[in-house]
Design goal:
The protein is α+β, with helices and mostly antiparallel strands. The chain is about 45% helix and about 20% strand. It folds into 2 domains: about 5-235 and about 425-440, Ribosomal Protein S5, domain 2 (2-Layer Sandwich); about 250-420, Alpha-Beta Plaits (2-Layer Sandwich), CATH 3.30.70.890.
């Protein structure tokens, strides 16, 4: 922990520029300096005189495995350069106070950490839930003060909630547990906070990816202890716009669709898969094959419906496809990777059916964005449903030659800044600390 003045001097000297380039990308260094400067000002004004540190937790993008995690399948996901960045300090009480730009202040007394109905779907519920998860594991928690700034758009399918959960977990780990809590334990605590305290029936992919960082092939066969394999692409990666030096840019398109009132649509997908799998003698879709589904087709259709059958077909192929995508990245085979992305997108639209909510058939921004992408890019890019679906974002891989034209066309439809370019964030910079005293001019 160091003083605000020491951080400010080191920031002005460019001391954090190399870290900013790693976690936010080289093109965003000036923005990163501005964000850290704003957080230092916030800490100085709101919590003056305290020793501070900085923590960061990234958003995530799903590269493959659409709605497979909750049924014990495989996913391919990556942490991204958009993040929640916090300056924080230890409090003398059990109260957590968080000032976040654009949001009402959060103040939570964590002396008692059980779920509260009045906090459902609130940031306070997340703070209380993460504290509860630490306590139930015999870990230490206490109050802290923090100023937070996020570049993860809310509702854009980039896991702003999971990033905030992981951020809170990292702060508790730093202040009260000697930075000893590993990424799996933080992710597990974060998921339980979202499921139980926040009240959203999410899977585990978001928290796992935000906590582990990098590109991950995750096997959820054991949901409590998923298998994690880091994927090192066989491309010439480096700074720049290309997706690992391939000439493609990875983007999500924020279609502006609202996630409000979509919880029943999200919850229906795992529920139907579970119900259909039960008719085949299993507790989840993992382990099913085509022959098992055909043998039990009448029972599945009668008990779960035709859509459940289609969703099982999606799961079987998508589960396999997530592994194939990881291999294509590892082998440096971008053509095969993009072919698999296209297949994934079609399966989500046609079989999983998470392009739009059947309760609001006139609102179809995701199918519209995918159709526009196909017409604008032709063979110079692909698009797919991203994340939970029904509203929010699509994911696209756009060739450099068509990027400007594509952005112009999509922003005419979905608004300025709707095209969000992403880069992959690698692990290793969870905390932005000053060098040891003898190394810094400030002598902090």
């Amino acid at each position: 922990m160091h003083s605000v003045a020491a951080y400010r001097e080191y920031l002005e000297q460019g001391g954090f520029d190399a870290v900013f380039a790693q976690i936010h990308s080289g093109s965003r260094i000036e923005e990163s300096r501005h964000r850290m400067g704003g957080l230092l000002q916030c800490m100085s004004e709101k919590f003056s005189g305290q020793e501070i540190c900085f923590a960061s937790a990234p958003g995530r993008t799903e590269l493959g495995g659409n709605h497979t995690d909750h049924n014990h399948g495989h996913v391919l996901a990556a942490a991204v350069n958009l993040d929640c960045l916090a300056a924080f300090s230890k409090a003398d009480s059990n109260v957590v106070t968080i000032i976040s730009e654009g949001y009402d202040p959060i103040r939570v007394d964590i002396s008692e950490t059980g779920p509260r109905a009045e906090e459902n779907e609130s940031s306070a519920a997340i703070v209380r839930g993460v504290a509860d998860g630490f306590r139930k594991r015999g870990l230490k928690v206490g109050g802290f003060n923090a100023c937070v700034h996020s570049t993860i758009p809310s509702g854009a399918g980039l896991s702003s909630s999971a990033a905030f959960e992981v951020l809170v977990g990292r702060i508790f780990s730093y202040l009260y547990n000697g930075k000893s809590i590993g990424p799996l334990e933080i992710a597990s605590i974060a998921k339980q906070a979202e499921n139980i305290h926040f009240g959203k029936p999410c899977g585990f992919m978001d928290q796992m990816t935000c906590s582990f960082e990098g590109i991950l092939s995750i096997d959820f066969n054991d949901p409590a202890n998923p298998g994690v394999t880091r994927v090192e692409p066989g491309f010439n990666s480096g700074e720049g716009h290309g997706f690992y030096g391939t000439g493609y840019r990875l983007c999500v398109i924020d279609t502006g669709g609202s996630h409000a009132d979509l919880t029943p649509d999200y919850a229906a997908i795992p529920a139907e898969m579970f119900q259909a799998a039960k008719e085949c003698g299993l507790d989840q879709a993992r382990g099913l094959n085509l022959d098992m589904i055909l043998e039990n087709m009448d029972s599945i259709r009668n008990k779960a419906g035709d859509r459940a059958v289609l969703r099982l077909f999606h799961f079987i192929d998508e589960d396999r496809r997530a592994l194939q995508q990881a291999k294509a990245l590892h082998d440096g085979n971008m053509d095969e990777f993009l072919r698999l992305v296209t297949s994934s997108g079609r399966s989500s639209s046609d079989l999983l059916q998470n392009g739009y909510s059947p309760s609001a058939p006139k609102n179809q921004p995701i199918p519209l964005a995918l159709t526009l992408t196909e017409h604008i890019l032709g063979s110079n890019g692909v698009g797919r449903v991203h994340g939970g679906g029904f509203a929010g974002t699509i994911q696209t891989y756009i060739h450099d030659s068509d990027f400007d034209r594509y952005c112009h066309a999509m922003e005419k439809v979905f608004g300025a800044d709707s095209v969000i370019e992403l880069s992959i964030r690698q692990p290793g910079n969870e905390f932005l600390a000053l060098p040891e005293p003898q190394q810094t001019k400030a002598g902090a």
